[in-house]
Amino acid sequence: MNRPTRVLAQPLIRRHNLATALRIIWEIQEITRTQLAEAMGLSKPAITRIVGDLVQAGYVHETEVRPSSGRGRPSLYLGLRSRQHYFIGIDYRLDRLAIQARDFDGTLLHDHHYPIMNRASADQIIERLATYVRAVADEIGFMPSGIGVSIPASVTSDRAGIKSSSFEVLHNTPFASLLQKAVGPDCPTILLGDVAACAAIANWREIAPSTQGQLVHIQIGIGAGLGHASAEHPFGPPAPPINRFGHLPLERGGRQCKCGAYGCLNAVAGFDALTRYAAPTGLAVGDSSDAINDYCAALLDLHLAGNNDATVAIATAADWLGRGAAALINLVNPTSITLGGYPLALGDAFLVPFLAAIEPFAPGSDALYTATRLEDDASVFGAVLLGMNEVLSNPLGAVARGGAQ
Fold first, then answer.
1. Backbone CA torsion sign across 322, 386, 85, 177
2. Which of 141, 163, 169, 373 could cross-link with 154 by S-S, CB 3.0 to 4.6 Å?
3. Where would I find the HTH marR-type domain in this sequence (predicted)?
4. CB count, 10 Å around CB of 109?
């Protein structure tokens, strides 16, 4: 009776071991077979089989590294093979469409911003994105091994469909399967993530992959979103720590939010609120593909030139967001907080009053704020990591789909 169970379990054990080994090599970058065996608690013959599979699949190679003194025998280290597999990340927001392609070791192979498509139909959006993916694949020479999409949306638990989105035409769509079909038969698995969730994944990898803490990311533009990553969930938990973060009630009797309630975080700290506060400056939002950043740059210039209306507008939006962040800190108790969206374009003019607003409600929490070098590209890099995680979880699956070249 036990024999069938052992037969069925063997492929699962192999997949688990391959995924664990590849993830360790990906995290550490260079490691010996002996070190890998110790990390996994496996015998050297078992590691030999695992490494052989990963080498054959094109993920890993061995390189000689000589001692720094130049004396003694060189050691053989396992490392990731470059340009054998790469991954595409799509960051599609109301104000931005960016696509990156990165190698397994994070090397940037493609980075481009495209015209936004806010008036397009669902079919037009799918076909345009598919065209861009095929163009990137043609540029690099072969199809990616994984694709991630960062989008302002509530996605299904399998990260394949959209339940609701800031793009109303995408409500209740099997987005991943539609995009895969449009790209073509060689398209790899496509995974979706909310913009804030993708940014949290990327920022976590930048600042805290070896710690046991938890990071929350606040993404704010037209609306507000919340992402979360930790040692337990480096690619994000199944659900954010607080649902509907953008609808935290902050101002009694405040302006009505699109959700129908009054005084929500979105209504008092979102980009629309910032432009309302800055109305006395006379600035108007343009219609370029980078309209939000262009507006913030102009508003910041006015602030730096001593325009009090600009200063008050920035400080007011920052104060409201700081109050929302303080509530979040008290509820979730994170070890790090990162920001994304329009605040990054305003720099210290926003950050200083934002942190000052947190202090009265969560004393000492200003130290939690962390800036990463990714800045507002965190969400597109997080999308790349989503695509990469599909391969890290099932290395031979990508090869079976034709991912390795």
1. negative
2. 163
3. 21-61
4. 17
